[in-house]
Amino acid sequence: MHKNFLCLKDCSADELNYLLRRAIKLKSRFKAGEVYRPFEGKVLAMLFEKASTRTRVSFEVGISELGGRPMFLSVHDIQLGRGEPIKDTARVLGRMIHGAAIRTYGQQEVEEFASFSGIPTINALTDEEHPCQILADLLTIEEIYGPGSWKDMKIAFVGDGDNNMSRSWMWAAKRLGFTLAIGAPT
Questions:
Q1: In what side-by-side order are the strands of the sheet with 99-103?
Q2: Is the N end or the C end of the chain the one with fewer CB atoms within 10 Å?
Q3: Average pLDDT over residues 28-34
């Protein structure tokens, strides 16, 4: 298993299935009222160059429910917003925090951060991919139709055929072996 979650194209089917099984298990534990806090005393920095409501709230709530503490860092409030190279920010944060979720424009920024920080890094969205959203969508399908149900479905993505969501769906279909149809304007 990778310590980073940067893109679907670098994950195997086994790794993606593991993440989905783990998410289902954790969600059922929380629904049952079980306290599970593996990130007690840990800090997750959330570096957001692109604004978001759902992504920010889901990461903040998720890390809090697992016992950790979220630290929201808008690039407008830190040195990245003043031109500091991502590798310098990564080196500094890597000595002070335990993980990072990054929502930015360039995929290379997330990969460079992961490389120089030495801490687990999550792609919370780039122009190239939106891997967490795809896993959330697949999890929702499983919650409604049953575990692994997407394997027997033809999933349709309707919208821009050349964006982070369509590319992420394509990688997920390739890795997990389900049928994907994309309806996009020409």
A1: 69-74, 43-48, 99-103, 121-125
A2: C
A3: 92
